[in-house]
Amino acid sequence: MNHLILAPVILPALIAPLIVLAMRFDVTLQRVFSTAATAALVIISAVLLWQSSTGAVQVYELGNWPAPFGIVLVLDRLSALMVAITNLLALGVVLYVIGSNWDTRGWHFHALFQFQLMGINGAFLTGDAFNLFVFFEVLLIASYGLMIHAGGAVRLRAGVQYVVFNLAGSTLFLFALGTLYGMTGTLNMADLAVRIAELPEGDQALLRVGGMLLLIVFAVKAALVPIHFWLPNTYANAPAPVAALFAIMTKVGAYSILRMYTMVFPPDTAATGTLFGDWLMPAAVATTIVGMVGVLGAATLSRMIAFSVIGSVGTLLIAIALFTPQGTIAALYYMVHSTFAAAALFLVADLVQDRRGKWGGDLTAAPPIVGNGLIAALFFTAAIGMVGMPPLSGFLGKLLVLDAARDHGQMALIWTTIIVTSLIAIVGMARAGSVLFWKAHAVTAEGGGATLAAGGDEVPQNALALTATFGILSTMVLLSALALPITGFLEDTAAQLHDPQDYIRAVLHAVQDAPADALGDAGVDAPAEGRAD
Amino acid sequence: MEALVAISIGTLTASAIYLILRQRTFAVVLGMTLVSYAVNVFLFASGRLAVNLPPVLLEPAPYTDPLPQALVLTAIVIAFGMTAVVVMLALGAFLESGTDKIDMKDDDNAEAKR
Q1: Chain A, 167-226: which have a CB under 8 Å from a chain B CB?
Q2: pTM value?
Q3: What's the pLDDT tens digit per position in A270-286?
Q4: What is the number of other CB atoms lying within 10 angstroms of the CB of residue A109?
Q5: Closest to A124 (Cα-Cα) out of A36, A223, A5
Q6: pLDDT of B70-110, one tens digit each?
Q7: Any bridge partners for residue A188, and if so which?
Q8: What is d(CA A195, CA A267) in angstroms, rounded to the nearest whole number?
Q9: Please, are residues A333 and A397 in contact by the beta-carbon 8 Å criterion?
């Protein structure tokens, strides 16, 4: 067994308590450990990505219990890719946090941050549906703490909404898992796939209920309309670097949809057919519209970005809802892109808010900020990426989505939605940018004042923060410059996803290789029946 | 017995949904607690209802499915922790802002980040 698969989960799980217990009052030491751990995670996930690119599905059996009896972690191309972008994003965010001193505005930032990484990495690696629930809870409970980091009445109230919404989602997850377990007698994803394919006709209605419940749960995480209401308040009121890290959280939902509904409920399942795609597609289209119109309507910078996150999730789920290899390639490319685009926007928003003093993130004209030109350039680069204009990766991502939707029955609707909402988003972002950065000069001319921070306010020291923002932005440039090799990898990933036999065989090898009667002797009620393919 | 369990899960869930949809945090926390009880019983039932059987693999059967019991145990621990978090958070929000309403008005959002 390859023990490195466990490292993205176990390393933050060890570092986080260490930070709480041993270096509680020493911010410098916390920063060193947190950055070192995150950098190590980036290296580990790069190695894992390289290992997964051979196409072999590697299985880590916890406690050496063979699946489906024990819990497994599974490394395939998709999970390696997701872990890699999580940790790369996390490194950027942690550097930004250190550069902008966000971690000194409250307690335990770095410990919660590491726990959050543990949960996200675990959710991407696990091959067991109940374990997925547990990792969801780990990442959520850490995110509750991060969301209300640095406190404040409004943030706490937004935090209550966020927690309650997600607790309700978690409970629904348990109902869905209970239904699936009652039907199939297993929660291992690979085993679920095998058993659902051979489920008797009479149980199919309940199976559909379970599948739909699960889809709703993942849709809550991904902030799909009409269950997206938690997102704008949460992202707009969370500390900006935390919101940047949360850019990966909606992708956890999207990843789970991709994983479960290509492997466990593929479109050729007799019991469910195209049921999930049929529901997902209209919701995704509505999400794109709501999100991008929200960009135009938002009154503060962070709310505008939060709505653009909703819009990008909509576009992403349109691609996923196609459930074709072509759609999956587009979805994966757009998923990587939109994670970094949203994170970069949130970080730029924080740079702006830090410098605008009492104007904060309001989209109203105020005197120009220190470094107006540089930050304006960063904002416009991130915004160009987000709305999907060339030359950044958002353009290629949306192009891939449009191309993948060409053969779909509702191609006209999908194309119109994506193109028109992109235009709306361009208008919204351009308006926000011109108010923030250009009208500022008009205000100075009228009032005769100098730039904002010249009034004796401390000028935030943040070369590191700017570097981190720039680093996250540059991933979008890389994504579009290296589009060919990246889509090549994503093609292999999509092929692996849409032909899950390798995955299933790798996970269930113990059961499939053993003679059926040997297991029967052990008193297990015949889990191997009909699985000798 | 199936009917009894089903009715109690249904009643618990229905009351919980009513409470969760209330405006004040206290009712919502109670609702979250109720729905977590409901889901615990539901998970138990997913392993089929059996009376007076050990959750140990025996040869020959009968035994009751041990897995849901482990799942319920995990779910109870998580729900307990989550309830503690939501209580602390609701209390903090109440003490900081002087109101226990769940809703946020638009001007609250404009105040954010100051």
Answers
A1: 167-168, 170-171, 174-175, 177-179, 181-182, 185, 187
A2: 0.91
A3: 888 888 989 999 999 99
A4: 27
A5: A5
A6: 999 999 999 999 999 999 999 999 998 888 888 876 555 54
A7: A128
A8: 15
A9: yes
